[in-house]
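Please fill in the sequence for the structure shown.

STRUCTURE ENCODING:
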């Protein structure tokens, strides 16, 4: 039904934000997520909202001409690369993501935060890497 449609509820919120001179309510959008009154007062982080929204939109788009557009637009891929110092072992693992958890504290801008995200990290102490055939490294 239209009352359960996340896409329609989201479209209405954005339309009203653009055209209304009054504050815009989000009750219909909240209800479309399947959340009840109690859920509305539970703190949800933006990543959880994004996941619920994208999952719902992907499900609604299945079998339509826009099937697959949500991941095409919003999914990224990254590679985790590990190279051991003491043994001849390296590993590359690819993973998909819809969001990144960036540290912003102490960063002047998003570029600096992204540079910190991809900087080399030494895995030692309790953070050692289990290298196949070589144990903890």
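FILLED IN BY: designer on duty
SEQUENCE:
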């Amino acid at each position: 039904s239209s009352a359960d449609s996340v896409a329609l509820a989201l479209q209405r919120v954005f339309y009203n934000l653009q055209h209304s001179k009054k504050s815009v309510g989000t009750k219909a959008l909240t209800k479309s997520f399947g959340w009840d009154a109690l859920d509305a007062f539970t703190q949800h982080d933006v990543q959880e909202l994004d996941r619920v929204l994208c999952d719902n939109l992907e499900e609604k788009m299945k079998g339509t001409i826009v099937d697959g557009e949500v991941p095409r637009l919003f999914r990224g891929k990254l590679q985790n690369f590990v190279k051991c110092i003491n043994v001849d072992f390296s590993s590359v693992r690819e993973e998909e993501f819809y969001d990144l958890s960036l540290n912003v504290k102490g960063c002047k801008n998003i570029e600096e935060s992204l540079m910190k995200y991809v900087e080399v990290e030494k895995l030692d102490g309790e953070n050692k890497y289990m290298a196949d055939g070589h144990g903890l490294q």
